[in-house]
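re: that chain from earlier
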Amino acid sequence: MGSNDKTVSHKRTSSTAGNTTSPPQTKVRIASAQTLTLQEVFIVVRTDNPGCQDPRSETQGVYLTLQDANNCVRRIANTEFSAAEEWSSPKWGTEDDGRVYWESDDVGEGEQAELRIERWEVKAPGSEEDVEFEVGKEESGSEDEGDR
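^ sequence. v structure.
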């Protein structure tokens, strides 16, 4: 073959071959609210209290297993608060239901910190009625602006 020879493909796409069947639909199976198993999630919350300001809480993670949530609390305590023992005696332990916690009265410069796990139930689809806003002025624009 010379350098100017071109290889021609004889493959045809579905549309050029005249196929009229549509591609297979993606199937999504949605369970009804009656068949759903209630699920709990474990939320790791960190609360910092600088003393001179209001305490602030921040979610560190949402976990499906207690083991993962407990490991998150331990990891944060070990990495971010490893020096806390220089200023106070941190307290940690395990609640009756297996959730671990960690807290310190002083993690440096008088700041307090706490790590805890909250247990939340995931609500099933349809657990809330459809409701429209009834308070405040209606904003101009599309109705879906609040769904961003």
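Residues 66-80 form the longest helix (15 residues).
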